[in-house]
């Protein structure tokens, strides 16, 4: 039996860093990006708004700020989204503290990524590096509901991810901001709109007009491009979802709304007021009528038909689709003319590139000198004024037919 000896002294316990006295503590994860200490934590939106300072717009002459000029419409849109959407989603915000105002204590100081605690000096205000509009929008909602109601209680119970950089160098903050913008790629409209299921028009087009097979023209959605806003020259697809959506909404509400937000609201109100079935039938009648146009029907019946349709006519042009939808709205709204009748009248209109239907509106004709020499090639015109002018011409032709 081996002889054992008692330890000669007390066991050595590793020393732990002293917890900063009086500081506000937030559970966090610490890590490095380059040489700087980064910390990710979560606060309720109500708590978060109270931890940040005033918005600092970029001023290189004074050496302050990192934020762009505030867009009030963008701020209001975010506030409306937060206020009206229970299951909202916002990205993390990026804020900065000086090393005097905050420090991170890792549970495992040797680990490159570790759980731990962020300690912030009471009263210290973080500088918002990225997320100024989200921060201001939160503040607007909290102020509007400060007396306490369901919205405020929801925000108090929710979390907002916050990335904290322990670095107060203004030049580096500014560089971070521009790097973040350059490395971000926003969704194109067709992807974003087809993913947005809160808007009735998107749901109706996706689930009923396309996937539901209500219009054979679209072949269950295979004729619609979702990944880009415009199909390529050799694509078998007719148009992008962005164009399909805007033309359909224009059919429903006309050309009155002049901003994206006003247009969205007008379309939503029209669908709610007219009723789902009535609005859906108008969509179906218009696009079924479009599929019956002679040039389109011919293209659908042959291989590479969409390529030929794109080469020979203006019917795949987004501006022409907007103009046609606006013209049908003008001819049928408040009259006894049905959408089906209007589209039959449209079948007699010359949509070919060789014709002159859109000269002076969507097409600037080729120019020749007195001897017949070409001076300027035919040029397609874009923009709202151009397609609204084309809509007036199309409406007049429909009435004649």
TrEMBL record:
<dbReference type="InterPro" id="IPR017642">
    <property type="entry name" value="DNA_S_mod_DndB"/>
</dbReference>
<dbReference type="InterPro" id="IPR017601">
    <property type="entry name" value="DGQHR-contain_dom"/>
</dbReference>
<protein>
    <submittedName>
        <fullName>DGQHR domain-containing protein</fullName>
    </submittedName>
</protein>
<dbReference type="Pfam" id="PF14072">
    <property type="entry name" value="DndB"/>
</dbReference>
């Amino acid at each position: 039996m081996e002889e054992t000896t008692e330890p000669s002294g007390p066991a050595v316990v590793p020393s732990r860093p002293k917890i900063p006295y009086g500081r506000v503590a937030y559970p966090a994860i610490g890590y490095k990006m380059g040489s700087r200490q980064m910390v990710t934590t979560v606060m309720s939106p109500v708590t978060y708004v109270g931890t940040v300072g005033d918005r600092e717009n970029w001023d290189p002459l004074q050496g302050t700020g990192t934020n762009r000029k505030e867009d009030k419409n963008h701020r209001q849109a975010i506030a409306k989204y937060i206020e009206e959407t229970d299951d909202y989603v916002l990205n993390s915000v990026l804020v900065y503290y000086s090393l005097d105002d905050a420090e991170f204590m890792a549970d495992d100081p040797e680990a490159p990524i570790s759980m731990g605690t962020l300690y912030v000096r009471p009263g210290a205000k973080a500088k918002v590096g990225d997320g100024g509009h989200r921060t201001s929008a939160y503040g607007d909602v909290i102020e509007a509901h400060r007396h306490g109601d369901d919205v405020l209680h929801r925000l108090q119970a929710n979390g907002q991810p916050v990335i904290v950089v322990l670095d107060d160098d203004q030049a580096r903050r500014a560089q971070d901001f521009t790097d973040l913008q350059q490395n971000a790629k926003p969704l194109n409209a067709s992807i974003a709109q087809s993913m947005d299921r809160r808007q009735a028009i998107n749901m109706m087009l996706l689930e009923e007009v396309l996937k539901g097979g209500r219009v054979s023209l679209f072949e269950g959605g295979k004729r619609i491009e979702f990944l880009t806003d415009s199909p390529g020259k050799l694509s078998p697809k007719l148009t992008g979802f962005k164009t399909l959506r805007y033309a359909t909404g224009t059919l429903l509400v006309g050309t009155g709304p002049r901003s994206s937000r006003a247009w969205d609201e007008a379309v939503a109100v029209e669908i709610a007021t007219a009723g789902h079935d009535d609005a859906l039938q108008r969509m179906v009648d218009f696009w079924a009528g479009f599929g019956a146009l002679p040039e389109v029907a011919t293209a659908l019946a042959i291989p590479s038909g969409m390529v030929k349709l794109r080469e020979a006519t203006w019917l795949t042009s987004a501006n022409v689709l907007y103009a046609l939808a606006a013209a049908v709205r003008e001819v049928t709204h408040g009259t006894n003319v049905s959408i089906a009748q209007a589209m039959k009248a449209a079948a007699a209109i010359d949509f070919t590139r060789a014709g002159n239907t859109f000269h002076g509106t969507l097409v600037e004709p080729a120019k020749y000198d007195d001897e017949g020499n070409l001076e300027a090639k035919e040029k397609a015109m874009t923009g709202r004024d151009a397609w609204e002018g084309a809509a007036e011409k199309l409406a007049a032709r429909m009435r004649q037919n």
